[in-house]
Amino acid sequence: MIAALRGQFVQWHDESNTLWLDVSGVTYELIVPAFASDWVAQHEAGSELHLFTYYHVAERSPKPLVIGFPRLVEREFFRKFIEVPDVGPVKAVRALTRPVSEIAGWVEAEDVKALQQLPGIGVRLAQTIVARLHGKLVQEALLRDEVDGAAAVATPDLRDDAVAALVQLQYGRREAESVVDAVLLSRTQIEGLEELLRVVLEQQAPAG
Questions:
Q1: How high does pLDDT run on average in the chain?
Q2: Which residue stretches of 26-169 are H helix?
Q3: Is 52:72 a contact under the CB 8 Å cutoff?
Q4: Among 38, 69, 86, 205, which residue's beta carbon has the most beta carbons within 10 A?
Q5: Chain-centroid distance, C-alpha 112
Q6: Are 189 and 207 in contact (CB under 8 A)?
Q7: Cβ–Cβ under 8 Å, residues 190 and 144
Q8: Cβ atoms of residues 143 and 73 within 8 Å
Q9: Is the pLDDT of residue 162 over 80?
């Protein structure tokens, strides 16, 4: 299993979404999902790239497939995605034309119609994806894509600290996790623990 590759960027083939990467004199051909093509385009030939990879060999094809992702969390999303029946690595990599955070957000919102925008995802498969992955992609849905020109992710510490604070306020842990995740999904610009707790408590306050 090839978990990651670090090497020199040789060339990018936009039509096939394939990247050539020279790793110590060996040139690997990687397929990079369309959502990451802009990330590739930010780099020039000769620059060093580090990609997290998923290595796949089909039973009927002797040619291995190496799929590359800029971030580990994107590869882990991919591994969850291909566990859905009728979504194999080939179909999955073709479907990922939108950012992982957006797709995960659709799943968590049970938005079957939005998922059908992805190539090769029909209504039945979209329903299956929601049924299998709903509730399992909260962290992916909280990803921040291209913040100030650099990819970032909502820090787990912020979420964990907020949950711990609510537990001290006599919330059950599951309830605390649920309300914190809901706020983080709906408010992408939360900057700190104090603001996060304020929003949670405002939303939990009785109406009237």
A1: 86
A2: 37-41, 72-81, 89-95, 100-108, 112-115, 123-133, 138-141, 156-168
A3: yes
A4: 69
A5: 18
A6: no
A7: no
A8: yes
A9: yes
